[in-house]
Structures are given as C-alpha cells and as structure tokens.
Amino acid sequence: MLWLKFFWLRCQQFYYRRYLKQSRYGHLLQDCWDESFSPFKTNAFIHCHNVEFLVADLEMSSLNENEGEILSIGWVIIKHGRIQLASAEHHLLKAKKTVGQSAIIHNLRDCELQKGENMMFVVERFLQLAAGKVLVFHHAPLDMAYLDNASKALFFSPMLLPVIDTLAIEKKKILRQQAPIKVGELRLAECRSRYNLPAYPAHNALMDALAAAELLLAQLDHKGKKVRLADLF
C-alpha cells in the first residue's frame, strides 16, 4: 500500500539523520526531507493537479552505477498540470574519468566535461528544487541509483525521496491490457509515440526530462480527470 511506502521512507530518513550530522552539507538533504512529504500532509490521495513534480533525467558514462559517473542532468517542473518551461535547467558535471565509448550515445566530449560544474553545486540546486515536490524519471531505478551514490558521497545517506516512474506507469498499463511487452516498447520514445507525442532527439538530459514531463501529462490525461497521486505509484 502507498502509505506503507511513505512510512518506510520516513523510517529510513529517521535512521540516516545521524549520518547527516557527520557531513558538512548534511543540512541540505535534511531540509529537503523536511519538505519532501508536504504534498502528503493532508492525505496521499491528493489530486495530481495540486502536486508539483520535478521531472529529471541523467546522462551517465555507464549503465552500471558502480562503474560510471553522472555526466549531465536536466530537469523541469510541472505545476498545476502544466510544464513550467522557465524552470528548465541543464547542467554538465565535471567528469573524473574519460567518457570513452559512451560519448557515441550522449555526444558529450571530455573537453566539455572538463569545464563542467562541481557535483556539490548541482546536487544542492537539485535538492533546493526537489523540496516539496515529487520526483519523476523514465526508468527511475537507474537514475536514482546514481543520485543515491552521489548523495552517499556527499551526505553519507541515500536521497530517500518520493519518486514516480513513467516507465513503470506505462508497463502497468500494457500489462492490464494483457498484452506482451515487446523489446524496446518501454523506451521513452516508444512510450511517447503511443500518445502521439512528437519525436525528440534522445540522450540529452534536458530534452529527455522535457520528453518525460510531456509523457507524464499524457499518461495523466489518459487516466482521466480525477487522478490521485496514489494512482501513480
């Protein structure tokens, strides 16, 4: 049940508070936690139109979070059921290692990433915006694995924030139709095409975040006018 998921998150946050005190910047994550459940203060069945979402995407040097690193991150906010284009941000992070063959996919070169921003600065900005919002990713486990690693390195704790996955929403929809899931059918572009959304260039963090935001709104519209936040988990 949804309330159990939130209760478990809160328990984990309580456990990791002791570790935040060991970090010089632990208060940044603590402040975000204090606001992270504000959409649920009344109840977990609040109408999605009244929830703010922070839709994000990461580009990484590897699909293995224990081997790769975050190269770029992009995000945009959804408020009152509308994408707030003025909130869109795209950050390149300073890479510690060469990007290697992964440059073929994300088109980020070593010379660009050498001029990238510090991880602490980008994570601080991300947490400031995430406070009081629900995070959204397409294939959230991979993105959150990288963000958790970054959070552990900076704050000695995973992020432990409420997250919605547009891929998981689409997967449930297909399974309810008792249809087999084909290879590649859950990719962002394929999911968007089922809602007649236009094709965007892939593997740019900001473009993918915008694409995921549009997909979420299309999924909400498909579900009907009275979609509760609980319906997305």
From TrEMBL:
Domain Exonuclease: residue ranges: 52-225
Transmembrane segments: none
Cellular component aspect of the GO annotation: cytosol
Name of one Pfam family that matches: RNase_T
GO molecular function: 3'-5' exonuclease activity; nucleic acid binding
InterPro entries (UniProt xref): Ribonucl_H, RNaseH-like_sf, RNaseH_sf
Top-level taxon of origin: Bacteria
PANTHER family for this protein: DNA POLYMERASE III SUBUNIT EPSILON, PROTEIN NEN2
Name of protein: Exonuclease
